[in-house]
Amino acid sequence: MSTETLQKTPLHALHLELGARMVPFAGFDMPVQYPLGVMKEHLHTREQAGLFDVSHMGQIRLTGANAAKALETLVPVDIIDLPVGMQRYAMFTNENGGILDDLMVANLGNDELFLVVNAACKDQDLAHLRQHIGAQCEIQPLFEERALLALQGPAAVKVLERLAPEVAKMTFMQFTRVQLLGKDCFVSRSGYTGEDGFEISVPANAADALARRLLAEPEVAAIGLGARDSLRLEAGLCLYGHDMNSLTTPIEASLLWAISKVRRVEGERAGGFPGAAQVFAQQQNGVARKRVGLLPQERTPVREEAEIVDEAGTVIGKVCSGGFGPTLAGPVAMGYVDIAHTALDTPVWAIVRGKRVAMKVSKMPFVAQRYYRG
Amino acid sequence: MSELRYTEDHEWLRTEADGSVTVGITAFAQNALGDVVFVQLPELQSYEQGAEASTVESVKAASGVYMPLTGEVVAVNDQLDGSPELVNEDPLGEGWFFRFIPADAGAVAQLLDQDAYDRLIKANADA
């Protein structure tokens, strides 16, 4: 895609001013790193606070008395009993139980739900919502209207409470309306780094001022997509299109935890989402392959698409995400492997440039999550 | 110490007093790669010009380092095993990759000189 056709977020000028190296990502011209560099940006986020522009992601509002009930027909997650002021992780499934996208759903109260979906999937998600539940609730895309900032790291709360003291009381996955610099924002205590922090939905025309205000705080540095990827990988978090796609189910993706109890086989509102039968069958009978954490035992980074073999050299899987973890100070990966090789500490090998690199099936997250649970 | 020569793949070469040639990647290359986290050094053997003798891994991606001229690798910079960041910190010095004996000693002088390489960088920057 040529640069002329790339979309720009409301912070585009700021990225250029900060000296970001821009790359095309999901149709947007996005900062992959700033002059600090991926390694230092990553470490800064774990030590202090990082500000990420994630305005390319899709924000969608669902309104109506039946919105929660309607959304439940598309996700294996409890939306009806999602408390007001809380957010939950969910995924859209297809008729085979494959994952169409993963998303965050928040209950704003007053029959209003607030969704954040992946940038690359947002048009498809919007069409999916309109097709299946368009008659049952109002669906309002906020793609142009709102920007999304993430403020992540142990100092994030200290920084944001200078602008809005009430955010300090929020706990992990709480979601609330907050005035920041006099503008109506939605703030959730969540993120994609494994650290404590916030995601801030801000009117597009107020995003630049808010970002500059946050960057003016001594703890905050601008962080690009490069460090966002290494942070989420260390935190064991899935990236859609890499660690899961329409051909992988939540069971294969090791996301059973995200399927609410009430929507499972034995639950009060069991099933009722696309592909439920396939997902339940897999849960009961097991799956042929599964997503696992992988720690290379050498210094060689093992990257996406690398084949995974057993001791005999038989191909048993493929790496779906991999790279270098600055906090771990070593390579880190996740991959899909045949179920016989998914036990913790199982030795497996990746083929990198024709040579074997020893890896060990490892528990995730690789770096302990530090969410604030009160 | 002789003056540096360059390739279009952003490697530098320096002919040493003993006739061997030291190879590394340029400041431009390390900056473009970003933080280097691993270097797979070549084997002590002969490589054809253009062969992928070495690989440099940054946080973001793996990139090949190609044999600038046909020759035999006689030494590698083992320091990069434990300190790959030397490639970023001192690309023209401590961050060297390997030394080789070119099959044709005169070939080094045919590579880009400083002026030609500077023009190449400028052309890249303007592109």
TrEMBL record, chain A:
<dbReference type="GO" id="GO:0004047">
    <property type="term" value="F:aminomethyltransferase activity"/>
</dbReference>
<dbReference type="InterPro" id="IPR006223">
    <property type="entry name" value="GcvT"/>
</dbReference>
<protein>
    <recommendedName>
        <fullName>aminomethyltransferase</fullName>
        <ecNumber>2.1.2.10</ecNumber>
    </recommendedName>
</protein>
<dbReference type="InterPro" id="IPR027266">
    <property type="entry name" value="TrmE/GcvT-like"/>
</dbReference>
<dbReference type="Pfam" id="PF08669">
    <property type="entry name" value="GCV_T_C"/>
</dbReference>
<comment type="similarity">
    <text>Belongs to the GcvT family.</text>
</comment>
<dbReference type="InterPro" id="IPR029043">
    <property type="entry name" value="GcvT/YgfZ_C"/>
</dbReference>
<keyword id="KW-0032">Aminotransferase</keyword>
<dbReference type="InterPro" id="IPR013977">
    <property type="entry name" value="GcvT_C"/>
</dbReference>
<dbReference type="InterPro" id="IPR006222">
    <property type="entry name" value="GCVT_N"/>
</dbReference>
<feature type="domain" description="GCVT N-terminal">
    <location>
        <begin position="11"/>
        <end position="261"/>
    </location>
</feature>
<keyword id="KW-0808">Transferase</keyword>
<dbReference type="Pfam" id="PF01571">
    <property type="entry name" value="GCV_T"/>
</dbReference>
<feature type="domain" description="Aminomethyltransferase C-terminal">
    <location>
        <begin position="289"/>
        <end position="367"/>
    </location>
</feature>
<dbReference type="InterPro" id="IPR028896">
    <property type="entry name" value="GcvT/YgfZ/DmdA"/>
</dbReference>
Automatic annotation (TrEMBL), chain B:
<comment type="subunit">
    <text>The glycine cleavage system is composed of four proteins: P, T, L and H.</text>
</comment>
<dbReference type="InterPro" id="IPR011053">
    <property type="entry name" value="Single_hybrid_motif"/>
</dbReference>
<dbReference type="InterPro" id="IPR017453">
    <property type="entry name" value="GCV_H_sub"/>
</dbReference>
<comment type="similarity">
    <text>Belongs to the GcvH family.</text>
</comment>
<keyword id="KW-0450">Lipoyl</keyword>
<dbReference type="Pfam" id="PF01597">
    <property type="entry name" value="GCV_H"/>
</dbReference>
<comment type="function">
    <text>The glycine cleavage system catalyzes the degradation of glycine. The H protein shuttles the methylamine group of glycine from the P protein to the T protein.</text>
</comment>
<feature type="modified residue" description="N6-lipoyllysine">
    <location>
        <position position="60"/>
    </location>
</feature>
<dbReference type="InterPro" id="IPR002930">
    <property type="entry name" value="GCV_H"/>
</dbReference>
<feature type="domain" description="Lipoyl-binding">
    <location>
        <begin position="20"/>
        <end position="101"/>
    </location>
</feature>
<dbReference type="InterPro" id="IPR033753">
    <property type="entry name" value="GCV_H/Fam206"/>
</dbReference>
<protein>
    <recommendedName>
        <fullName>Glycine cleavage system H protein</fullName>
    </recommendedName>
</protein>
<dbReference type="InterPro" id="IPR000089">
    <property type="entry name" value="Biotin_lipoyl"/>
</dbReference>
